[in-house]
TrEMBL record, chains A, B, C, D:
Pfam families per UniProt: ThuA
Record's protein name: Trehalose utilization protein
Superkingdom of this protein's organism: Bacteria
InterPro entries reported for this sequence: Class_I_gatase-like, ThuA-like, Trehalose_catabolism_ThuA_prok
Domain ThuA-like: 2-217
Transmembrane parts of this sequence: none
SUPFAM superfamilies tied to this protein: Class I glutamine amidotransferase-like (SSF52317)
Length: 243, 243, 243, 243
């Protein structure tokens, strides 16, 4: 399985606080804990040529993890089209946190993906609402994060195929913070936590969910649909009789 | 309730067979049967200025019905954006038949919306799989159409929120031919039948389904979500204690 | 439309605090506000013969509202069977609050319907997560109840067909507090609020949701499926050719 | 992973034609092809004590496959209760063909699970409608069975969480023939084919789907929900301030 962690990697350069928390970038931190499980991981970032997402790389990628925030608009439309095509062909996608507003996520959802937000160092508690889902393997009834950014409903997404986590926030809001979608042959997992100013991606339970997510979105060898004009599989003869 | 029936209205001009079946256009035929129920209906077509979809009209439209086929690409992107915005704001949308490939439907779905097809004068039988759904009111276990174009799976759409009809085709295929989606405040109904060379929209059961669909997608006065930065509804005080 | 409000009506008899809040019983309070909308309402209670649910009444009932709590086990199994049959035939069902543990709701869900709970006079805030749903008509982004019993996840229900409300509780939990299901021809709405020691059913927004729910679960004249051995609709002749 | 294949095993004893096709019983045939994949399989049948489903066996079973048809009523209710409890605790369940009418499947669904049927040696074609689903791994666009019993809609089940296969039948019907459900911690897969008088379980594609299903319903180490009275996770202090 080939995993690519894509990161905007801008906060890390402009905000010393973020750079201190994630000295190797958010992509670096995510790649590190995935590699613990002998997963083959590459990283790519916005400021590389083609944002690091060459055709060669995309074609061999099984799972793409996406983190972006303040430069969504700088992601080139042709790259978004290529990623979109690959998802429909079966490449798994994990959209993390502020990737809710990324071009690729919005294109796959068909909605604005807008939400409420607040930075107030408040507690988030992610409750498991589907304990049958493999993405919850190895974690407890809930994950508690002492300080996170708040994302609140209404979250303008299609009704998820599967709703796995619902967040409680200290300031009074709730949020559908773990949800899955199917698009074409591709599987998509949106997972809310991970504001750049908190060390969320070092949390072992959050890491476990992302690892589980990588396994879950990875889609091996399912059927390739055929589209377009199709010959009949059965004789169409009765109509003459009826006439 | 204000309903607008939008039609490409090109086959009617170029193909005498279609013109004979639908002398007032497909939009005219649909408007006629809706008006039987005292529904206020307007029509709009591709070749009008702004495709007949002015801001004024769109803003007062509760339900938009869309039929298009061979000129999807001629629909201007800015009009698609406006229709998309109105759907998210709560305008109901009914996409008929080949509107599966319309820009607006594809944008709302996030997928290619591709499928198999064949024109072979074959029987279609639409089976009701959700007899609790108001869209099935007044019809029987299935609707049989003696001759229709075939649409076959795989249909590249997100898993429908509600699957209402499944079609059987004489040539050996099946199709999810009646399905609903929610996007923002808007409700969407996709309904398969209605190839331009068949008199499908004169079928009383098909008319009944579309009438039911109009009622079902019409969304009255549901909450307007507020997005963006949000003040807390509860005091966020505990964090200082914890530190 | 004929609506029946069924209530256990035991707390009202044994707990003076409840009797003071609901002098005509919870069923009486619910019937009263429904009647404001010219809905035809009857009530039935546990201690009546057949719990007030005669065959005649059930057969003419379009929507049944159910409130029960401490005497679920006293509801006779044959009455539960009759209600179950009527739901599958198309009678709408609204299960309120502690009716999550009623025999009829558990039978329709197929799960334990267990949950977390706490009586601590805490704030509940019901957030709308599906602003396209008619059950949310006329209310705001959320409904706030100053004091309610807490119900917390995990709520052991099947994934709802539609999730409409998610509750935030002051003590740190969340809950899927408004959800819908389809079973046979019947539509079901579960709505969480309404602990007997709080005046929740006098809240205008809660009343609005229940009124909307009544309209939504009411199912008029959808198809009656035919089951059992079925003659073919098409000739089955090809097999001989193949052999 | 421990798999148990449960079979009624009555047709095999009373119908020589079935005995000839399945000399080791349907359970034997299924166990055989699962063992090709180094899966640890046991079998159990109706006429054994406790139908072969002892507490010890159930407690160590990860996945239970169920085939029954003419003796559903002979399955003891207490055994059904035990199987139900184990499913909610996380044991995967695959219900095959006529198990749609088994006590355990009906209890988990909450509906009659009724359908249309016909034995007429007709062609079934199972179309993949969700090519992102791991249960479709390794198969083509559709599976064709030359002769099978027909099952037709309406199939009285709750709307599936995931619909994977839709069947076309020569005689004119369609059927939701591969669907999944979640109940508690348990995952459920219903798969239609497998009438006792046809050699369906020797079909390599059908075997592949069942093998994929076994992997998919197997649920490892997801969270164990805690139910009942719960202490608050946050201080509930504000109410006094408000009063």
């Amino acid at each position: 399985m080939n995993v690519v962690v894509w990161n905007e990697n801008r906060h890390e350069k402009s905000n010393p606080m973020v750079a201190e928390i994630y000295p190797n970038g958010i992509h670096g931190a995510i790649a590190e804990f995935l590699e613990e499980d002998q997963i083959h991981v590459k990283t790519a970032t916005l400021d590389e040529e083609d944002h690091g997402l060459t055709d060669e790389l995309l074609n061999e990628t099984d799972v793409l993890i996406w983190w972006g925030h303040k430069a969504h608009d700088e992601v080139k439309d042709d790259i978004v089209e290529k990623v979109h095509k690959r998802v429909l062909e079966g490449m798994g996608l994990i959209a993390l946190h502020s990737a809710h507003f990324s071009k690729i996520f919005k294109k796959l959802m068909g909605t604005t993906c807008d939400l409420k937000w607040r930075e107030a160092d408040e507690t988030e508690r992610l409750w498991v609402v589907d304990p049958s889902h493999p993405i919850t393997e190895g974690i407890g009834e809930y994950i508690e994060l002492e300080k996170e950014e708040m994302y609140g409903e209404h979250f303008d997404i299609p009704a998820p195929d599967q709703l796995i986590f619902m967040s409680w926030f200290e300031g009074g809001e709730v949020f559908r913070s773990g949800s899955t979608y199917q698009r074409g042959k591709g599987k998509i997992f949106y997972f809310r936590p991970g504001h750049e100013t908190y060390p969320t991606y070092y949390n072992k339970e959050i890491q476990r969910v992302i690892k589980n997510g990588v396994k879950w979105v990875n889609n091996v060898n399912t059927p390739a649909p055929v589209y377009g004009n199709a010959k009949p599989l059965e004789e169409i003869t009765k109509k003459q009789v009826k006439q």
